[in-house]
Design brief:
Elements lengths: L24 H16 L4 E3 L9 E5 L10 E13 L2 E7 L2 E10 L2 E7 L5 E7 H14 L10 H23 L6 H15 L1
Antiparallel strand pairs: 1-2, 2-3, 3-6, 4-5, 6-7
The structure holds zinc ion.
Zinc ion (ZN) binds next to helix 2.
Length: 195
Amino acid sequence: MPVRIIKYPHPTLRHKSKPLRRVDAELKKIIQEMLDLMCADKGIGLAANQVDLPYRLFVVNLQADPAAKDQQYVFINPVITRRSGTAEDEEGCLSFPEIYVPVRRSEKITVGAYNLAGEEVSYELSGLFARAVQHEADHLDGVLFIDRLGPSSRLAVKQQLADLETEFAADRRRGQIGDDQQIAARLAELEVLRT
Ligand code: ZN
């Protein structure tokens, strides 16, 4: 079944993911789908949680362009090992359509991870790339950009969040989304498979 992007307040967005033990052919196919979905929605980053998967994995393409292969990064089991400085800039999230707010992040980071070839990689990042990686790494811990807002931004997005909550409840009533127990059971199964 093809993956799709889940929206706030889907419970998987609050799931703290476990490290991947193996990347099999099926997961590689899913990663390609994640890259395609992200670019189709003009996103520059997408975490596994956002496609309802409990794995420490995210993809980044700062150009949101599938043709820009050299801009395409897959981070598996990423760990941010160093942070310095502070920078504030506007952020959005594919799980929060049409919400853009300033978020404070570290200005520079060092991140270690495995790439799709299974090689250990390490990057020193700043600017938009550093911001995207911090945003996506948060997702893997069940942390969302709305958790990092100042009081005025929080107030500014209050109504939009309430609207997303109403939409989610309606989708659930229509049977398009399972209940919390069904979602948790599925995540547990997927964890047994690969973590
Ligand atoms: Zn996001």
